[in-house]
Amino acid sequence: MAFDQNNFLSELQRRLSELIRQSPAEDIERNVKALLGQTFQRLELVTREEFDVQTDLLKALQARAVALEDQVRRLEERLGQQPR
Fold first, then answer.
1. 16 and 35 in contact (C-beta within 8 Å)?
2. What is the chain's mean pLDDT, rounded?
3. Which pTM does this prediction carry?
4. Cβ contact 19:36 at 8 Å
5. How far apart are CA 66 and CA 72, in angstroms?
């Protein structure tokens, strides 16, 4: 299911406006928190810690790819083949 940002923002604005019109002032904060909690779950957000772990993993994989490319180049040179 694809996420439609424009539709999401319009729906969020509509819901917030409806909550403000229909709710007493003391219920607005509770309703907004619940609405935002549901919305954030739909967005499939990750924590900063999860993001940092994935960033570190990507950096390690990039370094490994560079090392493997260098190793292949050296092996090709030893075999007398043209590097790719």
1. yes
2. 84
3. 0.48
4. no
5. 10
CA-nearest of 7, 10, 5, 12 to 37 is 12
Task: Render the burial of 5-29: b for 16+ CB within 10 Å, e for the rest.
Answer: eeeeeeeeeeeeeebeeeeeeeeee
Kindly state the tokens that stand for 76: 């090709």
Of 3, 2, 4, 6, whose CA–CA distance to 14 is shortest? Answer: 6
Q: What band does 19 get if pLDDT is binned at 50, 70 and 90?
A: confident
Gyration radius of the chain's alpha carbons: 25
Q: Which of 3, 77, 76 is nearest to 45 (CA)?
A: 3
Residue 24 C-alpha from the chain's centroid: 35
